[in-house]
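subagent[fold] <- orchestrator: predict structure for attached chain, return tokens only, no commentary.
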Amino acid sequence: MPELPEVETTLRGIEPYLVNRKIKRLIVRNGSLRWPVPEQLPALMAGQRILALERRAKYLLLKLASGTAILHLGMSGNLRIVEPQTPVGKHDHVDLLVQGGKLLRFNDPRRFGCLLWHSGPGQHSLLVGLGPEPLSASFDGELLYQRSRGRKAPVKTFIMDNKVVVGVGNIYANEALFGAGVRPARAAGQISLDRYRRLADEIKDVLTRAIAQGGTTLKDFVGGDGKPGYFKQQLQVYGRAGLACPVCQRSLTEVRLGQRSTVFCKSCQR
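subagent[fold] -> orchestrator:
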């Protein structure tokens, strides 16, 4: 599943082709995504100028004068800038043609992504209650420490909770916990402030490095330019169960936490 670095990479790749451009046409070939694409959306968006493109958690927000189109890549979706004459593939469900001749194409084999519309007051229901962005000044170890008091859930599950902090997906939770020397199954409420400070720093560092590498491509993900992400080459624990720990050389252990693969070092993480 594309995580925050992959969504941020996508945003940076497509933004120059979209912002301040008028929408000529929205083509919906298959509106049966995670939630149905609103039938009136092509008419609502046609002729409007894209004022801004923003990311909130794993959602991309196309800001127009009359409202906001909300995009999510789901499990296997991607957005690419292509030429209008590019042949349409089996899973190319939505095209957004903009002034200047470029086309934004949404491909989603599993159809777990979404394209929704919000024009009412306040935030869309999908965005209400989300925690702070992990790369913002409002996210730090103190916040993790305060929100973890009394929590018995594993710390890995805790930092992947979008109500605590958004965008720390499975890959990057594994990597940040390893960097901070924190065992993933430890109860969130048992971890000290100093260790949460280190963990918050590691979350910021691993996400920043992943964005710089264009995200992580394990199977499906490509950025807006059609290129894969290269952070996979820097992964220290995720996907390396049974291999040597890069620090102590002992074998890395894999367990399931919250139904997700969790790899850690029994020696380096406590």
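orchestrator: received. Logging for downstream: The chain has two domains: 4-118, 141-264. DSSP finds six helices and ten strands in the chain.
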